[in-house]
Amino acid sequence: MTMKLFDSLLSPYAGRVRLAIYAKGLEVEFIMPQTEAAATLPSYTPISKLPTMLHDGHVLPESEVINEYLEDIGTEPSLRPSDPILCARMRLLTRIGDLYIMYPMGELFGQISPVDRDQMKVDEQMVELAKGMSWLDHYLDGTSYAIDNRLTLADCALVPALFFYEQIGPMFGMVAPLKKYPKIEAYFKGIKENPHAARVLKEIDAALQKMMAGG
Amino acid sequence: MTMKLFDSLLSPYAGRVRLAIYAKGLEVEFIMPQTEAAATLPSYTPISKLPTMLHDGHVLPESEVINEYLEDIGTEPSLRPSDPILCARMRLLTRIGDLYIMYPMGELFGQISPVDRDQMKVDEQMVELAKGMSWLDHYLDGTSYAIDNRLTLADCALVPALFFYEQIGPMFGMVAPLKKYPKIEAYFKGIKENPHAARVLKEIDAALQKMMAGG
Question: Of A78, A113, A131, B87, which is most buried with the most CB atoms under 10 A?
């Protein structure tokens, strides 16, 4: 049974799942926002967020749940190391991305407009974000992959997160926002050479350009 | 090599890990806050949050990373189903607990004092929390365990979260805060019969009483 993914080219969470799908070469029917099919999402799950996967009669919300599921059903190549310590490191990096980088960035996205900006909230979230980035920098080794010298679920989570970090930084006065984090900078430069990561980055970038142009 | 856990009886995240540890009967050295040993935590990880585990020369921050690691190294009984769909359901429930219940509750904890309460923030977070609870209610089946009729990592995450939900509700004017969620209510009543869940709940409750008494 073909997998279906309620997708969005603008969502870093959907990008995380597409990166895994591309790396595995899976056949998936992508359901894009504002289509007739997309409108059926709430009938599958009350969470009703993108991405959500349908597979084999099952409904799978939440990007990380989907990516771990793709591992659990044995799709190849595996993007999850079998060594428990490497696997824990992978999940730690993924969680740093979700809780300590994506979360404050989500709050900052709500403050992009300088007109009704809540500067206290911005300052708070910038401190949180800097903390998350310093933790990520600590746990990366400066090579082109988050762990194990190959693509894993940690890269799937981090690549879209760092794309948005580079976008949002300058909106809040940061110049060259990755400069302060040499290992993250080297990692993000290196991972762009991976064709699947490059493909997802290109898709998100194009969708963002289109949105900014009002398209 | 003995496992060590930087622990706190008041932390729902530490409680999540202790629940897994108790269910597995693991020998662990618990390092309690305000001890000399506890002060060494920042030398192990810049994240420096509770809980953090030390095992075999490795440092493991983040409760869910620790719990998945305990599964990956094969400790028994397993608290993670091998069926991919059940496993995805388990991780979905865990994530609902973390992102959509614990997160807004964390924000509400910052607003407990009625004196300098930001009512707009409270209202916002109460809406988020109600959303998270309704999703949890949707995905539980009303039995005594989150999935699979046995203790899993989903229960480890949900038991401390629901304990704090019952505490924080009345502080913001909710009467019998679980009444609106019949499946969660039945679940939380049932899971308390599990001896390991009961033990963790008793520990958190005692620590909270002690803190409230200024001890």
Answer: B87
**Residues of chain B found within 8 Å of residue A101, distances taken between Cβ atoms:** none
- Would you tell me which CATH number, out of the four given (1.20.1050.10, 1.10.3720.10, 1.20.1250.20, 3.40.930.10), belongs to the domain B84-212? 1.20.1050.10
Single-letter code of the amino acid located at A52: T
- Count residue pairs from A and B with Cβ separation < 8 A: 67
Q: Select the residue from B59, B67, B91, B136 to test the A interface by mutation, using most A Cβ atoms within 10 A.
A: B91
Q: Which CATH number fits domain B3-72: 3.40.830.10, 3.40.30.10, 3.40.50.720, 3.90.209.20?
A: 3.40.30.10
pLDDT (tens digit, 0 to 9) for every residue of chain A, 215 residues total? 789 999 999 999 999 999 999 999 999 999 999 999 999 999 999 999 999 999 999 999 999 999 999 999 999 999 999 999 999 999 999 999 999 999 999 999 999 888 889 999 899 999 999 999 999 999 999 999 999 999 999 999 999 999 999 999 888 888 889 999 999 999 999 999 999 999 999 999 999 999 989 85
**Which residues of chain A approach chain B closer than 8 Å at the C-beta?**
46-47, 56, 58, 60-62, 64-66, 68-69, 72-73, 84-85, 87-88, 91-92, 95-96, 99, 103, 134-135, 138
State the pTM of this model: 0.97
Longest CA–CA span in chain A (Å) reads 50
Buried b / exposed e over A18-50, threshold 16 CB at 10 Å, is bbbbbbbeeebebbeeeeeeeeebeebbebeeb
